[in-house]
Each structure stands twice: as C-alpha cells, then as structure tokens.
Write a structure and sequence with these properties.
Elements (H helix, E strand, L loop, with lengths): L5 H19 L2 H10 L4 E2 L7 H7 L4 E3 L15 E6 L2 E6 L5 E7 L3 E3 L13 E4 L3 E6 L1 H10 L1 H27 L2 H13 L6 E2 L3 H8 L3 H14 L2 E4 L2 E4 L2 H11 L1
Parallel strand pairs: 1-5
Antiparallel strand pairs: 2-8, 3-6, 3-8, 4-5, 4-7, 9-11, 10-11
Helix pairs in contact: 2-6, 4-5, 6-7, 6-9, 7-8
Length: 252
C-alpha cells in the first residue's frame, strides 16, 4: 500500500468526514428530497466564510432590483458573493420565454461557471430585490481554497447540491404533467414551513416548472378548491401539505 503525505491523509480524512455528515443528515430531509426533489432555493451555505470573502473582495456593491450581474453569453471573469437580497437564475428560449432554474438568497456564491476567465456565463442572474454583492475573480477563490481546505470541500458540496437539484428538476419536467410538476415544486421548497406563504407570481411559477401561466392558474384553482391552499395578496398560503401530497399521488 502506498504511503501518503500527511497533508494528503488529512484531506482524505476531511473528505470522509464530509461524506459521513451528509449521510447522517439524510433521514426525513432525504425522504422529502427523493419524493419531491431538492429545493431550488439556495441560502446561507457560505455564511461561516463571509468574513473571509469580505477580507479578500472589494467592498459590497449595490445592485438594484431588475439589474443582472450575470448575463448568458456576455458576463465573464467575475464571480460574486451575495451578501443580502434575492436573485433568480434563468435562461431564455428562442421564443423569449424564461426558464427559472434556481433562486439565490443571502450568503451564497454565484457565477462559478465563469471560473475560467475566457468562459462566459451560461445563465442570466437577475435581482428580484435590491441586492448587495461582493465581486471576486478565480485567482482570489483559488487562493482562498488553497489556504482553507474546508472551504474547498464546501464549494464542492455546494455544486454537487446544485447539480443534484438540476438533475431532479430535469426528471420532474420530463415525465410529469403540469399538476404534478407544480405540486412537487411547492412541496420541495415550502413543505418544511408551517402555513408557508408562497410569494411568487403565476408567471414566475410557470417559468420555474416550464409551462404557461394559464396552466399554473388552472392548477392553483384546483388546489384552492380542494382546500390545500388559500389565496392571499400576490401569492398564496399552503394550509394543508397532506392534501397537496394526496392530489399529487392521485395524478401520478
């Protein structure tokens, strides 16, 4: 058996511990993910390294609601730490329709598809609220990872999570009808919250599950008539998640 340097053994041990922690935390959350898919909301993953990013990045800059720090095929060379606010990650098809793939909140990083400076962003990222972000480049991230192996493991774990969410999303869109797609989207993102309020427009919901707004409106009416949701303001509340599950199972 080959002998490994002490630093390599330490990294292997750290990686093994990350895998064990991931496995231990799977129980109920894992069951929910397997049934309904991984949440498309990302928040808080890098909170413990916020001060480290702040020490290496320029001061936070304000992006106004509607502005896009990343544009598909245009942005290159820069990545960002989201200090506060909410963003949507989406692409646009040739007909001009949005396809939302994720939502970002405080203490996440984005734009890592521009890690290599010559590559441009494959997604557009738009501010849904006013946001504060810290820009950084690949050399800065690589330097931080070289100095802090745990950060490198976290970046790996984060993008494994992103990849898993995208794969489950593709499966959901390819094999289910609009009712099941919408119910799965609601359950995977809000089931854990009691009396959860969904503050997304019908247009955004349609973009997230790749269907028409009228299709979302029809399903929401069915959910409202069943007593699973209650309309409130621009959105609605999930008042009975078990009814959502029953309606989903009846449509499979």
């Amino acid at each position: 058996m080959p002998a490994f340097p002490a630093c390599e053994l330490m990294r292997m041990t750290q990686f093994r511990n990350v895998i064990l922690c991931l496995n231990e935390g799977m129980s109920k959350d894992h069951r929910t993910e397997e049934e309904f898919g991984a949440s498309c909301f990302f928040a808080g993953e890098f909170r413990e390294y916020r001060d480290l990013f702040a020490s290496r990045c320029p001061p936070p800059m304000k992006m106004l609601k509607g502005q896009c720090p990343c544009r598909r095929g245009v942005t290159s060379g820069w990545m960002y730490y989201l200090c506060s606010g909410m963003m949507k990650v989406y692409c646009v098809n040739p007909q001009g329709n949005d396809r939302i793939v994720a939502f970002l909140k405080d203490d996440t990083i984005f734009g890592l598809d521009c890690l290599e400076k010559e590559q441009t962003s494959v997604m557009t990222i738009e501010c849904l609220t006013d946001c504060w972000i810290m820009p950084f480049q690949s050399d800065t991230l690589k330097e931080m990872v070289r100095e802090n192996a745990d950060l490198g493991l976290l970046v790996l774990s984060y993008y494994c999570k992103v990849t898993r969410q995208l794969c489950q999303d593709a499966e959901n869109l390819s094999i289910h009808d609009v009712s099941v797609r919408l119910i799965n989207f609601l359950l995977k993102n809000w089931r854990a919250e009691e009396n959860a309020y969904v503050r997304l427009s019908q247009e955004d919901l349609a973009s997230a599950i790749s269907c028409s707004r009228s299709g979302v409106a029809r399903v929401l009416k069915k959910l409202k008539d069943s007593g699973a949701i209650e309309m409130e303001g621009i959105g609605f509340r999930i008042v009975d998640p078990e009814k959502l599950i029953a309606l989903r199972d009846a449509s499979l």
